[in-house]
Amino acid sequence: MRAANIDTKLAIAISNEVPDVLDDILSKCETRSGNKIEISNSNNKSNKWMKSIYATAAALALLVGGYFVIGQYQMVHTVDSVITLDVNPSVELKVNTAEIVLSATGLNQDGNSVINDIKQDGVKLTGRKLDEAVNELVCSMVEKGYFSELKNSILISVENSDNEKSIEIKTRLLKSVGNALSEKGIDGAILGQIGTPNEKISELAEKYGISTGKASLIESIVAKTTQFSFEDLAELNISDLSLLAEKWIGEMQNISMVGTPSSKGYISSEIAIDRACANLNIALNDNLEIGTSLELADGKLIYDVSVITDNMKYEYLIDAKTGSIIDWVTSVIDTETMRNGHDSNSVNSDSVEPDLPEEPTKEIADDIIDIITDITSKAIQDTNSQSTLP
Known about the structure:
45% of the residues lie in helices and 19% in strands. The protein has helices spanning 3-17, 22-28, 44-77, 109-120, 130-143, 163-183, 199-208, 212-222, 230-234, 238-245, 269-280, 362-387, and strands at residues 81-86, 90-95, 101-106, 153-159, 189-194, 255-258, 289-297, 300-308, 312-319, 325-332, 338-341. The protein has a six-stranded mixed beta sheet, sandwiched between helices.
């Protein structure tokens, strides 16, 4: 059998076995000239609903993500706490909730100098943790001589709306600054205070060109005594203010101190008493009642020394730096008659004037005149009688 015949027979056989369904399929489709074949889909409505859900979810995700990003940005760049360091240089640090320094600002000329020198050394304060920045500032101040055995005090002021967080930051910085000073060989006195300055404090700080932290400390001291005015204390450095505030620390709200303010730049109260007794030329003994207090006069610290004997009271004003006697007052205890002394190199030996008698009345004056008249008349008579003798 030829190959051509074989192919023909196979084609016929396959054609007979496979049904011709083309006509059947076309008969089920509606065909129109120029029209498209439309195929209905029962899932269109549900697909549209799902698309709406997906779009809404995507929008919410973007919204939540946006809020999150904005929140993170604000948390990183928003000031949460303000910390001020006062020695003589005054520096203000602003930090976020993570206690990362956002800004470091000098509040006076010395403060600007410290910050600029740190920058010149290639060290950045911003972007660092608070404790690290504070230690960097303290070490720089020590190297520049702002701290010494004579001036060992620093004031740390913390402002935060959360009182508990303020206390935590203050307590931590008191310890870390104390350690930093100790490593530099300085036995420091660190004052810490918390609280947001009110309008009065802010105005006083601006008026006298000092930080609000220092203004708050001065206001606390002035509230404890009438001896000092705000204007007088504004001129003092933190070491001098610490010496004045030391005896009231336990009574001052939100203020604490670690360490002892140095008094090495001043004579001791014992030396002041010795100077007073030497001026009086008396020796210390159990019969003397002696008192002393550290005060302020004409912008400098002085000792007010009182020495009481049996019936006399002596009060001396002695310069706390030089030990020289500025002035003294002497009084008799029972009469309270006061005498002022001005020569600081000699004992005030002026005697106390006795009480003057009362002014004579008219009756006494007349009696005195009569007595004088009688005496005069008698003297004249005696003279005349003597002149008549042979």
